[in-house]
Design brief:
Number of domains: 4
Largest sheet: 4 strands, mixed
Structural class: alpha+beta
Low-confidence stretches: 63-73, 82-86
Shape: rod-shaped
Mean pLDDT: 81
CATH topology of the largest domain: HSP40/DNAj peptide-binding domain
Strand content: 25-35%
CATH superfamily of the largest domain: Urease metallochaperone UreE, N-terminal domain
Number of helices: 8
CATH architecture of the largest domain: Sandwich
Order of helices and strands: HHHHEHEEEEEEEEEEHEEEEHH
Distance between the termini: 126 Å
Number of strands: 15
Radius of gyration: 40 Å
Helix content: 25-40%
CATH class of the largest domain: Mainly Beta
Oligomer: single chain
Strand order of the largest sheet: 10-11-15-14
């Protein structure tokens, strides 16, 4: 086009300022953009002529390449912003992150800090995916509509164009920071609150920390899955806690004080003399959220003992027989003998 045609295309006179040229071009670009005029070849032609006229007339006002690149970047950002608004907003996908916590922490609750990969808009290209100063052209695959037909047997369905990803326009140069994706991934430190009494496999939702949405769509959510590590002694049954405590035979016979772990710290239980295996003591309020903790006694029988202990045990066994201290055992043996002679 000649210089006079450039002015005519933008509807301006030779005395127009640089700002007037930019305003006229933006107006024509919006009016004739392919996303607003799908399948309109005349509009696409006017769109290209306006861009050519703008480039030619703007160059006359530039003393260096930097201001021109900045102006083109502003216009390009506006056009891509329009294209993204015209495309159907798409919500980002949800993401899953798994971490583990100790049993005691899960019971008491609190805050933990995790490092998770997240997506965010590229600051270098303002999320457009276009290199600064780069020009754009109408996508040849979809003719600027952002859609393409996909054959399915006798039918066809529209889907987002695979060449322009539904934008209708393609940048000649992609943003070097995000490679044209419009978003970047980075590690983010997040602090989340773990409720008291959290169970294994609990999912905690962190809104907006999933995959980044497209075309103005909302971000997906992040779901943090908690794996609760088992405690070596304390077990959970509903809202109550149970612990099995091994007790030496001598302590079970004579009675005494034994240490017991709880989610609030260590405490003690005084057991009665003659306590049997399976006896349960209740610690009120020491369980989860004010519930009780149960202490089950398990008498530990040694598998091997020193000779001195073995000699003492034999002597003790003889004393048991002579003093008849094991009433249940004596009654059992008597019944067995009676049954065998009946």
């Amino acid at each position: 086009m000649s210089a006079n045609e450039h002015w005519e295309v933008l509807g301006l006179g030779p005395d127009a300022s640089q700002e007037e040229i930019k305003t006229a071009y933006r107006r024509l670009a919006r009016e004739n953009h392919p996303d607003r005029n799908p399948n309109d070849l005349d509009a696409a032609h006017r769109f290209r002529r306006a861009a050519e006229a703008y480039r030619a007339l703007s160059s006359a006002f530039q003393t260096s390449d930097e201001p021109l690149a900045e102006t083109k970047s502003e216009v390009l950002s506006e056009l891509f912003g329009l294209a993204r608004k015209m495309a159907k907003a798409k919500r980002g996908a949800d993401t899953r992150f798994e971490t583990s916590v100790s049993f005691l922490f899960a019971m008491k609750g609190g805050n933990i800090t995790i490092s998770v990969p997240i997506q965010e808009g590229c600051a270098h290209c303002a999320g457009s995916g276009v290199a600064e100063g780069s020009a754009s052209y109408v996508c040849g695959g979809c003719k600027g509509t952002g859609k393409e037909a996909q054959a399915r047997g006798f039918f066809s369905a529209l889907k987002s164009c695979t060449e322009c990803h539904g934008l209708g326009v393609i940048a000649k140069e992609r943003c070097p920071t995000c490679n044209g994706d419009g978003c970047i991934s980075r590690q983010c430190q997040l602090t989340i609150t773990v409720p008291s009494g959290t169970k294994d496999g609990t999912r905690l939702r962190v809104p907006g920390r999933g995959q980044m949405g497209k075309y103005g769509g909302n971000n997906g959510d992040l779901y943090v899955v908690l794996k609760v590590r088992e405690h070596p002694h304390i077990k959970r049954k509903g809202e109550e806690l149970w612990v099995t405590v091994p007790v030496p035979f001598a302590v079970a016979v004579t009675g005494g004080v034994i240490p017991v772990p709880t989610i609030h710290g260590q405490t003690t239980v005084t057991i009665d003399s003659g306590t049997c295996s399976g006896t349960v003591y209740r610690l009120r309020g020491q369980g989860l959220n004010g519930h009780d903790q149960h202490v089950c006694i398990e008498i530990e029988v040694p598998k091997s003992v020193p000779d001195a202990v073995l000699t003492a045990l034999h002597a003790y066994a003889e004393l048991e027989k002579s003093h008849k201290v094991l009433r249940r055992t004596d009654a059992y043996l008597a019944q067995v003998e009676a049954d065998s002679t009946a």
